[in-house]
Amino acid sequence: MSNSDEEMSRQPQPLRFYQTGTFTAGNRLLDPARRTVQASLDRSNTLTSGHRACQGCGEALGARYVLDAAMRASDRRLIAVNATGCLEVFTTPSPETAWTLPWMHSLFGNAPAVATGVAAALAVKGRRGRVIAQGGDGGTCDIGLGCLSGMFERNDDVLYVCYDNEGYMNTGVQRSSATPAGARTSTTPVVGDRGGQSFGVGKSLPLIAMAHRIPYVATATVAELHDLEAKVSHAMALHGARYLHVFVPCPLGWGCPGDETIHVARLAMECGLFPVFAAENGVVTESRTIRRRVPVTDYLRTQKRFAHLFAETAAAREALARLQTLADDNIRRFALAEVAP
Amino acid sequence: MIKPFAITLGPGSSRSNHTGAWRTQRPVYVSRLAPCTQACPAGENPQAWLFHAESGDYRRAWEALVLDNPLPAVMGRACYHPCEGACNRGHLDASVGIRGVERFLGDLAITEGWALPVAAPPTGKRVLIVGAGPSGLSAAYQLRRLGHHVTMRDAGRQPGGLMRTGIPRYRLPRPILDAEIARILALGVELQLETPVDDLQSAMRDGGFGACFAAIGAHLAKRVDIPAADACHIFDALSLLSDVEAGARPALGRRVVVCGGGDTALDVARTARRLGAQESLVIYRRTQAQMPAHAEELREALDEGIEVRWLRTVTQLDPGQLTLEKMRLDADGRAQPTGELETIAADSLVLALGQEVDLTPLARVSGVRFTDDGSVVVGADLMTGCPGLFCGGDMVPATRSIAVAVGHGRRAALHIDAYLRGTTLDEPVPPAPAGYERLNTWYYTDAERRRQPVLDALRRQATFDEIHDGLTTDHALLEARRCLSCGNCFECDNCFGVCPDNAVIKLGPGRGFAIDYDFCKGCGLCAKECPCGAIDLVPEDI
After folding, report:
1. pLDDT of A157-170, one tens digit each?
2. Which residues in chain A come in under a pLDDT of 70?
3. Sequence-separated contacts (24+) of A179-188 with Cβ below 8 Å
4. Which of A24, A47, A88, A91 to mutate to test the interface with B (most CBs of B within 10 A)?
5. Mind listing the pLDDT tens digit for each residue in A196-223?
6. CA A104 to CA A115: how far, in whole Å?
7. What integer is the mean pLDDT of B76-80?
8. I need a labelling partner for A104 at 20 to 30 A (CA). Which of A56, B9, B414, B528 fits?
9. Which residues of A touch B54 (CB under 8 A)?
10. How far apart are CA B430 and CA B38, in angstroms?
11. Burial category of A328 from C-beta neighbours within 10 Å (exposed 0-12, middle 13-18, buried 19 and up)
12. Quick one: CA torsion of A263, A269, A274, A277, rounded to 10 degrees?
């Protein structure tokens, strides 16, 4: 046996010896401790069956992923505060609720403020328990930004989770400040050969959160379950204001089939348009390396909201080129590639 | 429910809303035919036994394997692995080293002394098997498992057929072969060596055999007329290999020329080198593209210094000299003489021009028919035109390989068993194939194929030591784990994790999953994100 073979035998078996490593939710060959919460028979199912989300809804998936992980981390002592939006609407058409944890519906824009109050009440009453506030990109980046900034600035002990499906989907796919450039929505329609969300507008909430220098900011995606759960775990081990931005495709709003939700999320990550990273106290501490890099067109092609970008016109080609530049910039800025592009 | 103050909704009360009514298609767990299983002529299911090998349960893997093939240590060396050619992983990086893992399991079973499955209680029926090669041994094994009495007759001094007399030791060490044969015989096979059978019909009748399986192979060399002086050394390839196996060291001289393009020609050339020939040259009438020998055999031969000359035939042999005629390929790809001659020095000529079946034992059996090229005609049940007489291996029209032979033996045994019970066997229809397009390959880790160590060229030319070493335990385990488990659930929990509606039920380790059709909306994410394609989406009846 060569020297390197001997070394490999002596070291603990690296993950690559397992068929699927940490790419699947679980694996019968993997040590249970290395499987996800989702793979476990006693996951909380915080969001249970019977809700009215569309077939293949990314947000429903993202919410269960985050909350099951948070429930395990907090020993099931968790209270959720939910802003108005798709998640709130499809889970709680009165008198039914799909939630199995204590859950409050706030207003559209004040989930962070209500959550702050819940955290304060727990502290005053001397009760153990953690608080999670959640909302969509509309309720977080636009309507709720004032309250959110206040919560960050006061460093209240709340984990805020934004489910980013890049638009106000519940009310009929209107643009938000998280809608990507080029995307068609009902308020950024395509007319002739031009349209979709303009370039040069929009906000990055993860960067805004980092500017507040809160203890933990991270982006995650439904296409990377292990990474998402690890980030929730890490966040729950900290106290103070924490922010998690989760990428959740919306098949109906984006114009892709319901079975492609995870595939689309994966492509967004692998082309660089959605960087997956984490930051503490305002400084990026880790980023997820792209595994198999693809051009942005591979991602954009999957959704009808970008269909007009594939017309054979100068405007369309220019838009594609600009989007590719955005992706390249992300890759450089967050060090997402092993070798610089 | 009387709710506490300020509580308006009962937790989980959404479960009264059966969203399963939304469906237009439903997911169904399936088990599909893995390409390796489809390709294996011996009838093995590599995906199934690799599943056990992956968790390190080598014994269980071997036990699953030998249900279909009792000779894994031999096959792990001598089979040309059509399974690897079909393996879906080949589209991803490189096919799984199935043959290497089979050899690992076979060798481990010999070292550990694992036993084959026990025989069923005696049925009282007697079966005659003629030919103790891979086909006959496979049939004997399966028939013993079913409880029938088996008498095996072979004209040779030792069992094994071409495994012993045709495959050189450097490809198949004899202790391995002996161990696997002995294990089959130990099930209670009555073996009669040096007992040729000249008339199958009378042999069946005289011995009170209810059925007979004839698998004597194709051991007659094809004859070709080459003008040669009396003092010239011309040999037949198979007889030469057989004599070397028996311990002879034929006087081949320093320059040996082998005429032929199959694996046998290469085996003889390589054997001649090991016996001391300084030059070993293979000549073939057509080119490499048409050569019947396997590519890896040719590569190994060239590595050992065997020379090959294409587009040549032998026209005359004189003492110390051979006359060759150059050939060319015509528009139909057939070799045509050009009239150009050349002479080369040669001390001996070995003819490896193909083998024919000795049809004498069947010549007077009523009902048996033969093909134009001298094979025995059999039905899908491997029975000849004579009731109760079955035939397989190189004797029947089929690809001639050890795996095909083993497969024939197994199937013939099952059909013989049915025949003896007065019924017929309907071979089960295999499930639909698990094609590459059904896989979601993102989920498999990157893992390069591990190769088996090979003896260096110098030692290979001087000794009959085995050329290929086996995979180490670590590498065998890695190779097994590179298996994509095409079309068969391997409990990765992806479906359970990926359903937005919590509609996949995990039944527990080893028990798989079920769909909760009350709530499944039919989005199809489970099927899309199943790495191995074990979920089908079936339209609902609307």
Report:
1. 999 999 999 999 99
2. 1-17, 339-341
3. A180/A273, A180/A323, A181/A319, A181/A322, A181/A323, A181/A326, A182/A300, A182/A306, A182/A309, A182/A319, A182/A323, A183/A254, A183/A305, A183/A306, A184/A304, A184/A305, A184/A306, A184/A307, A184/A308, A185/A253, A185/A305
4. A24
5. 999 999 999 999 999 999 999 999 999 9
6. 9
7. 95
8. A56
9. 19, 29
10. 9
11. middle
12. 130
CA dist B14 → A7, A91, A100, B339 (Å): 55, 8, 10, 89
Block residue for tokens 């279909």: B68
Kindly state the tokens that stand for A22. 């940490």
Distance CA B457, CA A63 (A): 62
d(CA B485, CA B50): 8
- Work out the angle at residue A12's Cα, subtended by the Cα atoms of residues A8 and A17, and round it to the nearest 5 degrees: 70
| Mean pLDDT value across chain A | 93
Q: Give me the residue label for tokens 């499906």.
A: A165
Interface predicted TM-score of the whole assembly (ipTM), two decimals: 0.93
Cβ–Cβ under 8 Å, residues A86 and A52? no
Chain B nearest C-alpha distance from A298 (Å)? 15
Cross-strand pairs, A216: A242
Q: In this structure, what token pair is assigned to residue B525?
A: 């994410």
Instruction: State residue B231's pLDDT score.
Output: 61
Q: Tell which B residues from 52 to 91 touch A, by Cβ distance under 8 Å.
A: 54-55
**Which residue is listed with tokens 């049939």?**
B139
Distance from CA of A149 to the nearest CA of B (A): 29
- Judge if pTM exceeds 0.90: yes
The residues facing B193 across adjacent strands are none
The encoded tokens of residue B104 equal 């690992």
pLDDT tens string B223-268: 777 777 666 688 999 999 999 999 988 888 999 999 999 999 999 9
Joined tokens for residue B77: 């060396």
Q: How far is CA B146 from CA A76, B58, B407, B532, in A?
A: 58, 25, 17, 35
